[in-house]
């Protein structure tokens, strides 16, 4: 607002005999403030708020002020939100009679102005004297969840009451239409947004935001645990990607002593397993006879007392994986160190914090299965060339009694990540560092200070992985590899065994399988990096892509800063040598009409761009296998345009020079220029849009 307008507004107030009623006269007779944004009425009101502080003699007597306050309340019901605070302050509404204010808000509510009633209640702090269910229900029906959160934001008692109401609505058998029926004519009603799923999400968000005990919401928590239970059965008996011990740990911790969940567990066991397995779990849970499914009671009488649940051969009716089918840790078991005391960690830091060192880093935490709170790191794995250190973070935190001791480990971790002379290897580092920050607030800025990190997730982003052919048996018993396991499979020949991935990493002692899994997850990063450094071309990586790996941890690859290849150390400490580029003689020039290609499915944008230039293009669909490109190329005499690892497989299936690897990190235009230059395709004006698009 210009200085001239401010001065004019102030002169106007100074000239009024009674400025407080004068402002209301102006607002009541004006309509410009009823729209959105900052109106003239808004500027006059806020300027008056400043002016009145400089003229303390202006405020009215008690009776006169009450009359003004009654007029203000009428304006507040219609004015934009940005006028609430100035008007409440100017006319001292916090000093008004509380019952009068509550009556006014109630009047607004019964006229159907639910949002306005809630906003005014928040500004005047009336919530403790209101019915939280009554005030919040219409707001939830209108999808005003943010306003509901603000309404209870400063009142723990109201937070608890609201959560209990929402949880009661999620009780099995409760008819939500009983709630919605009362608000049939509600404007802006969004019934699709008002259901158990939405309510459940809101409950978890409120539990997390207000740090309320989840035990307050048994229905929502039970439903979430039941979904977890169904998921665990799917992982164990459909996907077959969880070991028996791992699955048993999670089922026990999910069900606990909850009879309702135990009843569902029995039904799932009868569906997926057999009566003997169900009987053993019934024995473990000490279930009463009336809860047992048909046949389980008789089976239970036959069983001897057992200390732990064991799965029978009949229940475990799928082909067991052979360990030799998976990546094997190449170092002796004695070289894996599980560190639980501060004294033990010193040997780790002395070896790790060495200039020129290359370390693989990974972290494990207990799966949350959608429950409240961020995951806290339970295990930190640091791999060197000859050994792996597994740091038991909960135990180390427990032992740190003094403030000085509590800062030791975060200090070492910060030193490690901020030292550019130490190469840190990871896979999806941002997620790991976020979990570290949730475990220790002192580590919240580690990702910003990190230097010399190599996030191998970028390799997966830069190259498109070609899945090898699987036998019928493999397809039947093994899930397709993904993530780090897929990268390990293509670079090192065998995938990671991920059956321990969803383990309970907080439970101590860790099982031997968990220890080996955790060590392998960190150590394989060293082997991948070394192999990529030695021979990037054989994995479809151009040298500039390999050079770009060193940098900040990130989730999505961005434009890479070019580094000299000599700056990338290998795990053995040796530098990777770049190869000299030899420029071949260009082929004879051809027109786009003479040039026919088949584009792999990761290059659909390139295919469309080349077609615009008159090139004869066929493009693979998303669901097509990369190998289809070779079939088309052979049948129709086309050149294959592909990228990354598929290039290695496809180039061996057709004639030399008929398969070209395109840089996937570039845009379609740059890719097209690269292709046209390589094949010496000369585009004329007549070629552009000469083909049907």
From TrEMBL:
<dbReference type="GO" id="GO:0006139">
    <property type="term" value="P:nucleobase-containing compound metabolic process"/>
</dbReference>
<dbReference type="Pfam" id="PF01927">
    <property type="entry name" value="Mut7-C"/>
</dbReference>
<protein>
    <submittedName>
        <fullName>MUT7 Exonuclease</fullName>
    </submittedName>
</protein>
<keyword id="KW-0378">Hydrolase</keyword>
<dbReference type="InterPro" id="IPR002782">
    <property type="entry name" value="Mut7-C_RNAse_dom"/>
</dbReference>
<dbReference type="InterPro" id="IPR012337">
    <property type="entry name" value="RNaseH-like_sf"/>
</dbReference>
<dbReference type="GO" id="GO:0008408">
    <property type="term" value="F:3'-5' exonuclease activity"/>
</dbReference>
<dbReference type="InterPro" id="IPR002562">
    <property type="entry name" value="3'-5'_exonuclease_dom"/>
</dbReference>
<dbReference type="InterPro" id="IPR052408">
    <property type="entry name" value="Exonuclease_MUT-7-like"/>
</dbReference>
<keyword id="KW-0269">Exonuclease</keyword>
<keyword id="KW-0540">Nuclease</keyword>
<dbReference type="Pfam" id="PF01612">
    <property type="entry name" value="DNA_pol_A_exo1"/>
</dbReference>
<feature type="region of interest" description="Disordered">
    <location>
        <begin position="556"/>
        <end position="587"/>
    </location>
</feature>
<dbReference type="InterPro" id="IPR037432">
    <property type="entry name" value="Mut-7_DEDDy_dom"/>
</dbReference>
<dbReference type="InterPro" id="IPR036397">
    <property type="entry name" value="RNaseH_sf"/>
</dbReference>
<dbReference type="GO" id="GO:0003676">
    <property type="term" value="F:nucleic acid binding"/>
</dbReference>
<feature type="domain" description="3'-5' exonuclease">
    <location>
        <begin position="336"/>
        <end position="537"/>
    </location>
</feature>
<feature type="compositionally biased region" description="Polar residues">
    <location>
        <begin position="565"/>
        <end position="577"/>
    </location>
</feature>
């Amino acid at each position: 607002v210009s200085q001239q307008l401010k001065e004019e507004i102030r002169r106007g107030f100074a000239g009024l005999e009674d400025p407080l009623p004068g402002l209301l006269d102006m607002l009541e007779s004006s309509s410009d403030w009823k729209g959105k944004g900052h109106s003239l009425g808004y500027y006059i009101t806020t300027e008056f708020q400043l002016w009145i502080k400089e003229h303390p003699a202006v405020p009215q007597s008690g009776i006169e002020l009450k009359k003004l306050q009654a007029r203000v309340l009428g304006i507040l019901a219609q004015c934009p939100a940005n006028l609430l605070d100035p008007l409440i302050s100017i006319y001292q509404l916090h000093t008004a009679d509380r019952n009068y204010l509550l009556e006014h808000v109630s009047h607004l509510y019964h006229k159907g102005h639910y949002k306005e009633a809630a906003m005014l209640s928040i500004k005047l702090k009336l919530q403790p004297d209101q019915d939280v269910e009554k005030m919040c229900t219409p707001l939830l029906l209108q999808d005003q969840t943010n306003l509901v959160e603000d309404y209870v934001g400063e009142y723990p008692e109201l937070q608890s009451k609201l959560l209990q109401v929402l949880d009661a609505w999620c009780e099995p058998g409760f008819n939500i239409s009983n709630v919605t029926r009362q608000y049939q004519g509600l404007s802006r009603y969004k019934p699709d947004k008002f259901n158990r799923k939405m309510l459940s999400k809101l409950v978890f968000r409120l539990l997390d935001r207000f740090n309320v005990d989840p035990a307050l919401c048994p229905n929502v928590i039970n439903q979430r645990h039941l979904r977890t239970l169904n998921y665990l059965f799917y992982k164990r008996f459909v996907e077959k990607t969880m070991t028996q011990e791992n699955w048993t740990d999670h089922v026990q911790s999910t069900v606990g002593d909850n009879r309702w969940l135990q009843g569902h567990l029995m039904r799932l066991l009868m569906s997926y397993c057999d009566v003997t397995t169900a009987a053993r779990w019934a024995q473990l849970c000490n279930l009463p006879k009336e809860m047992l499914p048909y046949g389980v009671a008789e089976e239970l009488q036959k069983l001897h007392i057992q200390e732990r649940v064991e799965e029978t051969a009949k229940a475990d009716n799928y082909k067991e994986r052979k360990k030799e089918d998976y990546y094997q840790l190449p170092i002796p078991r004695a070289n894996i160190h599980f560190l639980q005391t501060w004294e033990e960690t010193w040997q780790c830091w002395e070896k790790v914090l060495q200039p020129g060192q290359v370390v693989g880093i990974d972290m494990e935490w207990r799966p949350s299965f959608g429950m409240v709170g961020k995951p806290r790191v339970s295990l930190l794995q640091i791999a060197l060339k000859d050994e792996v250190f597994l740091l038991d973070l909960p135990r180390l935190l427990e032992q740190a009694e003094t403030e000085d001791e509590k800062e030791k480990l975060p200090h070492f971790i910060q030193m490690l990540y901020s030292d550019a002379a130490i190469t840190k290897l990871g896979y999806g580092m941002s997620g790991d560092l976020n979990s570290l920050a949730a475990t220790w607030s002192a580590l919240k800025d580690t990702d910003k200070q990190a230097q010399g990190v190599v996030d191998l997730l970028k390799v997966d982003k830069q190259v498109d992985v070609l899945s090898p052919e699987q036998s019928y048996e493999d397809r039947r018993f093994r899930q397709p590899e993904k993530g780090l396991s897929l990268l390990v499979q293509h670079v090192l020949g065998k995938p990671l065994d991920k059956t321990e991935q969803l383990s309970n990493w907080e439970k101590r002692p860790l099982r031997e399988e968990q220890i080996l899994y955790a060590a392998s997850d960190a150590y394989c990063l060293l082997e991948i990096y070394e192999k990529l450094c030695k021979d990037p071309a054989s994995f479809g990586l151009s040298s500039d892509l390999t050079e770009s790996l060193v940098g900040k941890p990130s989730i999505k690859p961005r434009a890479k800063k070019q580094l000299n290849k000599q700056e990338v150390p290998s795990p053995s400490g040796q530098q990777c040598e770049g190869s000299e580029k030899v420029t071949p003689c260009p082929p004879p020039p051809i027109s786009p009409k003479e040039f026919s290609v088949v584009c792999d499915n990761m290059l659909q944008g390139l295919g469309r761009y080349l077609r615009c230039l008159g090139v004869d293009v066929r493009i693979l669909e998303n669901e097509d296998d990369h190998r289809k490109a070779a079939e088309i190329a052979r049948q129709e005499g086309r050149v294959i345009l592909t990228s990354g690892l598929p290039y290695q497989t496809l180039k061996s299936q057709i004639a030399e020079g008929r398969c070209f690897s395109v840089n996937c990190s570039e845009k379609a235009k740059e890719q097209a220029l690269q292709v046209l230059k390589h094949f010496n395709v000369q585009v004329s004006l007549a070629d552009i849009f000469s083909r049907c698009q």
